[in-house]
C-alpha cells in the first residue's frame, strides 16, 4: 500500500524474504497533482520533405483532479505558421477520466528548416498555476525527393489469350519480341540539398512477387547525384496467380533523412468494359439462382447457318421460344451467362459473358449489347464504359463495318472513382505532360514518368526526361480524327458526330463512356426472331481485340396518326389523338407526355393500340405559373398568340407532344423510347 502526501516521483525498494532466498523489488511511483496531464508530453514530427506533406499527432488528456475540467483553447508559444490544432469546442474531461485523442496537432512542411517550440493547452482550472498545460514539439523540414524514371519501375505482365501477340507490348515496354522483361534496373537520384545515405531498399508489399538486389546500401549520394543502380526481379507466374492485375506494389527506400514509398505498377495493358444492366442480355444482367440454373451453352446447327441470306453474312437468326420476361431467345450461344468477377463493377473485356468457345475469336465472346425489340427501321443507342486501370494511356481503335450500326461516339472521359491514389497521381502527371488539358495523350515507351524535379507528396518524384510524343490528330477531349459517316443532327439526336472508324485514347485511372447506335433491319427481315450482329463493332488495343456484338429482334409494323395535325383553340380545347397499328402483336402505350405541360396536357386514354384507337386526350389549359398578375397576363397572352397564330398548328401539337409506345409482346421494357 502506498500513500503520497505530495506530488512527484517516489522511488523505493521492497525487500522480500523467503525460506530459501531474499529478493529486492524496486518501486517507482509518480504522483500527479490535480489538473490535466497530456500524453505524450513531447511531440516529434520527424522529417518532412515536401511542402504538401503533413503529419498529425493526437494528444490525450487525463484529469487527475476531483472536479471536471474544460479545454478552452490551444495556442503556440512561437506563433508557428506550420502548426495547426484541431479540437472540439467546450470539451470537458470528467474527474479521473481520460479524453483520448482530444487534440490533434497537424504540422505542415511548408517552411524548410528546423522547428521546435511550446504548445499551450488552456483550461478553466481554478488554480492558475496549473490551468495551462505545456507540450513541447520538434520537427525538421527538408525539401527534396528521390528521383527515378517511372517506366523503370513498371512491369507488363503478359495476359493470357491475347490476340495481338506480335505487337502486344509495343506501347508499354518498347519491345515487341515477346513477354515483358522480368527484371528492371532502377537508378535513384538525390534531389535533396544535403547528402543522403541509403540505409535500406526492400519491397513493402508483393514480397513473393518482386525481389530487390542492390549494392547501394550505406552509399552516400551528394545533392543531384545518383546511387548505384538497384535491380527489381518479377515473377510473372506468381503475379498472375496471386494478384488481381493491375496491381500497385510498394518499394520502400530508407535514408538517413527520410523514408520513401515508390509505387511499382504491375499491369497487363488490358481494358475493362462495363455496361448498364438495361444494355446487357438478361442472362448477363440477372444472376442465376439454384431454382433456375443457367442453361449450358448450345451450339447452333450448321444447316441452319447455311440457310442464312448471303447478303447478311455477319447476321444470324435463332428460332427460339420467348419467355414471359424477355424477348431474347434462351440460347446461351448468343446470350451466355456472366463471368463471376471479384473486381466488383469491373468486368474483364476478354470475357464479358461466358459462352462456348469461338474459334474465330480465340475463345472470346466479347461484349454483348442487347437492344431488345426494335421496330423495323427504328433507331436506338446503348452506352458502355471503357476503363483503363493501367498506369499508362491506352490507345484504342474502333471499327464498325456493318450497315445496322450507324456508328458510335465518345460521350465523356472522367476519373474512375475506384482508382487508387497512386494511380490517380500517375494520371495527374500524364495530364500535366500533355499540357494540362486533361485530354488524351499518346502512349510512349517512357510510360508515365514525369519531367518534373519538384518534390511532391511523399517526396518521390520522377526524374527529368524528354517530353512525350503527342499525336497531332488528337484533340483535347481524348478523341482523334476519324471517318465521320453521318451526324446525329440529321437523325434528330443533336450535333455530336457519329463515326464508324476512329481512334481514341483512354487516360490512366479514367473511364470513357461510349454510345453505339443501331438501326433495325428493313421490314420483312428477321420475322420477329432474335438477331445477332457479330463484330458489329471491334475495339482493338495493343494487347487485345474485343468484339462488340449487338442483339435485337425486329418487329414488323407501323404506327400511324389518324390525322396529320391537331389544332387547339379556346373553342376546341379538347382533342383526341387517334392512332392505328399494323403490328401483329399488341402495342401498349407506356407513356403520353407533353413537353409544354403548363399549357398542353396529354392524358392517356387507352392502354393499347389496335387497328384504330384513341391513344390520348390533348387538352389546352392556359395556367400560367408566375409571381404577379402582370407577369401572368404577359405570359398567358404570349403563349396564346404562339399557339393560336402559328402558321403551322402541326408544329405545335405534334412537336410538343411525344407518344412513347411500347410495341413488345408482354415485355415490361418493350420498345423503350419509340417516338411518333
UniProtKB/TrEMBL annotation:
Classification via InterPro entries: Ig-like_fold (IPR013783), TMEM131-like (IPR039877)
Recorded coiled-coil stretches: none
Biased composition (Low complexity): 448-467
The name this protein goes by in its record: Transmembrane protein 131-like N-terminal domain-containing protein
Native source organism of the sequence: Rhizochromulina marina
GO cellular component assignments: membrane
Basic residues compositional bias, start-end: 471-484
Region (Disordered) residue spans: 430-488
Recorded superkingdom: Eukaryota
